[in-house]
Amino acid sequence: MKKKNKWVPALIGIAAIFAAWYFVCWAGIFNSYVLPSPQKVWATFLKMLKTGEVFRDIAISFGRVLRGFGIAFLLAFVIAAFRIFFPKSEPYYEYLIQFFRNVPPLSLIPLLILWCGIGETTKTVIIVLASFFPMYLSIVKGFTGCDRKLLEVARSFSYSPMRTFVRVILPSAVPDILVGMRTSLGYSWRAIIGAEMVAASTGLGHMILFAQQMSRTDKVIVGIFVIGTVGYGTDRLLGLLIRCFVGGTAQNGWN
Amino acid sequence: MAGIEIRGLTKSYKMESGTLQVLRGIELTLPEGEITVVLGKSGCGKTTLLRLVGGLEEPENGEIRFPGEQKTAFVFQEPRLMPWLNVRDNIEFGQKKNQRNREDTARIIHTVGLDGFEKSKPHQLSGGMQQRTALARALAYRPSFIMMDEPFAALDHFTRESMQQELLRVRRETDASILFVTHSIDEALTLADRIILISEGVVSAEYRLPQKQPRDILCDELIAVRRAIVSALEKPNDSTPV
Lengths: 255, 242
Description:
The complex is a heterodimer.
Chain A: H1 2-26, H2 38-51, H3 53-85, H4 90-101, H5 109-116, H6 120-144, H7 148-156, H8 161-198, H9 204-213, H10 217-246
Helix pairs in contact in A: 2-10, 3-6, 3-8, 5-6, 6-8, 8-9, 8-10, 9-10
Chain B: E1 3-15, E2 18-31, E3 35-39, H1 46-53, E4 61-65, E5 72-75, H2 87-91, H3 102-111, H4 127-140, E6 145-149, H5 157-174, E7 177-182, H6 185-191, E8 194-199, E9 202-208, H7 220-233
Parallel strand pairs in B: 3-7, 3-8, 5-6, 6-7
Antiparallel strand pairs in B: 1-2, 1-4, 8-9
Helix pairs in contact in B: 3-4
């Protein structure tokens, strides 16, 4: 009963949007080129499913996101941990990080194309740049925000710095790390689409841009739906994986 | 008798309004296998003394000499359990992996009356049960020296009494030295081999209590000690640092 209650309002919300869309098209308020009808978009989607082109684009974009996100997570984790073990090193790199945090990754595309070409490296770097910072900030917050009283307990039992990190700091930072990962995953998707629109011949971003050039608004809308759905799906998938590892939902900041 | 020696210990804190001198030269010997209870008004520096002895803070002057290698454990005012660990893992928190022994842990869990709660997380326990877990964590470490900072202050009367008896039993069995801080005179009279009064940052008085346990704290001898302590603590010149 409870589960049903949760889904009913969500479905009503979605249905309302579709109804409005359908009504606007039916009343002929916009040209069908500006806003294709839901039926047309659905038919295009089915066609793309049949030819398999949409799956290829999803797989390519998904692979890029995973690679960039994985590298960004490792970097963020290692640098944040470094900061915990060597607090005095912080001023040497913290200002640089804060500087680059405020530079939109997409603004680096011209330089990255020059330096790394239009191959996979450029796209990976863009995703890393987009997803590194939110994750880094959250992980640092998690590590540095560890309850001093718990750290004293570790100290009172003569814990080494490494043991304190593994047994106290890391577990207490898990909720913050998870929130950072979740935010960053969303950023990764946004960045990959931008990158693929500028410098790619495959992927969902390219698919949308190509459809625009071919005046296929229906394909553009299909692309938008696919990106939203896949992004939502990966978010849930990450949530599911995390639930397997740390259990519970309320405490790890995932719902 | 060999023991922990504290000589000329001083400590002050920098505050906005100036320097707050908390300890002004503590001289104290903690003999092996004894329960030394530190009594004093709140803010007199009891906890600071304990934290200095436990190495959680650095003293300004003076020294603390330990006779050889000591295995020390701390029981804090609050339980300070790891929220992500269950009761059993919290109790084994102080031990290295190769020192852990499920049977010993089970025995300690039974001693502190937490049977059936091994898998519970701290937030599922009452305050008293959390504090008992914290005590069990210290005991499971098999320390030779235990520091306790008002560990039973938040417990109800009956739980506190049973925990006090538990502590006395541990002392009998393990011969651990215990430095116990409290503001409850009754608790001091129940547990102590020796009571130390701290006021104005120095040891102002010392009382040795009879060996006999369990004690009736309403017997004439202990009532006399109690009177002496109360009048010492109420001295008008005993201005508590803010």
